[in-house]
Amino acid sequence: MDLFSQADLSIDESDQSFKNTAQKIPLVDGELVLYPHCFSTAEANHYFEQLQKTIAWTQEKITMYGKTHNVPRLSAWYSDEKIPYTYSGITAYGLPWTESLQAIKSRVEQLAAVQFNSVLANLYRDGADSVSWHADDEPELGPAPVIASVSLGQERTFQLKHKFDKTLKANVLLPPGSVLIMSGATQQNWLHQIAKSRRAMAPRINLTFRWVDKHLANVSAKT
Ligand SMILES: O=C(O)CCC(=O)C(=O)O
Fold it and tell me: Whose CB has fewer CB within 10 Å in the chain, the N or C terminal residue?
């Protein structure tokens, strides 16, 4: 049972620091909207602690040029119906939703006005953890996926670069409690990363909610 009661989690409307305003981030050939304070500070802290404790954090490995390395972050994949997800050469089968993930999913579904059937959770333990340039463009996500990315804990910079026009770049600071929604042609035209940092960094949890086509996901898992 979640010890943090629903009343504790409710939003105090008199608290002007909580404003669920959308910031449209201008992006050629893509759509990016940031909700800097979708979750209040209390909610963000609560979910960070819960997820840190309850997610099945896994150290994935990747083999490149015949050498095997630890992926520089911990991750876990949750979904409806054990949907497989194949990324970075790894196939993970979706774990059942936890109470916190389900609650966060409901909130971001309202915000994005779409339904999600899966989430990739990443734990960046410190500034040495990162995710390198990539697009969420696997066939099972569809040609124009809506991806809702929740940030908790340490603020990190989300960097974007255009796939075809090297002059186009963007940096978005992701504060705790924020939700970044990527949609339209963003994944077709842009790469994103969280770079390593030499500065002292506290842990950060990121959740990217997705809608995965189960049949296409099974095809990717088998190939
Ligand atoms: O941590 C982030 O903000 C980005 C995570 C990401 O790019 C991914 O899971 O595909």
Answer: N
CATH number at residue 80: 2.60.120.590
Q: How far apart are CA 147 and CA 144, in angstroms?
A: 9
Q: Report how far ligand 1's centroid is from the alpha carbon of 141 (Å).
A: 15
pLDDT of residue 3: 38
Distance between Cα 182 and ligand 1 center (Å)? 11
Which residues approach ligand 1 with their CB closer than 6 A?
A: 120, 122, 131, 136, 149, 158, 174, 192, 194, 206, 208
pTM: predicted TM-score of the whole model, two decimal places: 0.90
Measured in Å, residue 147 CA sits from the centre of ligand 1 at 10
Total domain count for the chain?
1
**pLDDT at position 12 over 80:** no
DSSP 118-159: EEEEEEE-STT--EEEE----GGG-SS--EEEEEEES-EEEE
Average pLDDT over residues 155-169: 97
Report yes or no on 201 lying in a domain.
yes
